[in-house]
Amino acid sequence: MVKVNFSTLSKSAKKFAKEKETEIKGQIMEDPFSLVPVDAVIGLVKDPVGFLSEKFNDKEFLGECIATALSCVPYVGPILSTVFSMFWPKDPNAAVITKGELEARLTEFRTEMEKVIDTKIDAAITESESSMWKSLVAAFFETLIDRVEDAKDLVNCLKRGLLDDAEGCDKIKTDVRVAMEQIRQKAKELSNFCRNPKFAKHVLKYHYHVMFILVATHRQMDAFWYQFDIDPRFVMGAPAIPKHNLKEIRSLAEKLHVYISNAMGAIAKGVMDNVKDKKTDRNSCYDEYSAKLFLSDMYLYPCPLFIAPASTSDTITVPDKGSKFIYRIDAANFKARYPSSRDWKDAAQVDVLTGCKGMILGEGPSITLKLAKKCNVRVRVFGQYTKDITLLDLGYDKVIPTVSDSMPAPSLFKIPSGFDNFDWLITGFAKMDRLTNIDTLNLTFSMDPEEAMHRMEGDSMVKAGNGCVKFVELIITSI
Fold it and tell me: Closest by alpha carbon to 184, among 156, 223, 211?
């Protein structure tokens, strides 16, 4: 692994790769759009899962992630695919769509988006805000059409140049990078507008669409940083240097994680508002897209995810799925150590975001996990809790925050009366310490005894706060 002193880095991506120049040049001349491991040049700045000493650079896996994101964007997805697919192996089953068909679909989609606020207008939305939405939509589609048409020829020229000398023309690289960045920025502007509390419940579907465009552009830029001549610090991030008053640079993956988390918060609030307004028909897109957006977070899911089958055994065997993978276990497979209280009995239920039923925290979920071989493991626990439950008791005098990485969501389980306010819920991941060289793991979760009771304001009745552990994920890497 090449270690680079951040204070001496040069501006050119090629200079970052100087020590690996011969190897990279041969790789690029053989396949101009092969994946050059940026972490081998700059080092892994931040590892969100705990054990990834290097990035997961499997071209098939990354290509599938981008294809999945674009498949969630009707009309726009096929247009972006005409450029993005040029970097990936051709899919023989891909449908061929003519330029005329694409333009007709795009016009239909743009008209639909521009009308959404007018047709679902409410008293809280002003005429100027409605006009602003239409302007943003128009600017987005104009940028999309202009940049995609330009990019197709540019990418073709870039590939030819890389085949010739593994470097290509700097001007063409810049033009491709700018085209990608402009699409990304316009999607961000639309997403920011969709997060406005006045609009969130009306534009859920379009918020998902622009988020999937952000996912696709971030992944494309992350995968082909070398071909686009993107500064590795922009891709991998960089630590703060207080001495020179330099702030931390977030990686492309971490930036996307923040965008997704913010979007999920706005979408969750919109979904709950629609439930209160008895307008649940607006929430059909949540059922369709929520899980896909969650799993599109390349900061949380940088390598393949496998889901354990349902089990009634006291011990769950975790299979060997390769050198780096994530294994998800529905907490419904765990054993309850305590009986459920009357208020929370049968509260656990399958939700569309996680696809898991889970187990109520007050029941004390417990399980033994047996790995196929000794590995390094990081455990994270995804759940939703009332805000008064801030600590998970792991036993052995160890407690951790219930949510250290927030991923807002609507109600993921049946919440008793008195706790059914969205603002009373916290949702996200708790992270346990890293474990090395293990093949067996015993997990137990409970409420911290001191937090088990919470007095509702203005209510003389003492009610027990609670929550639902939805799933546990093991991030596993070979020793």
Answer: 211
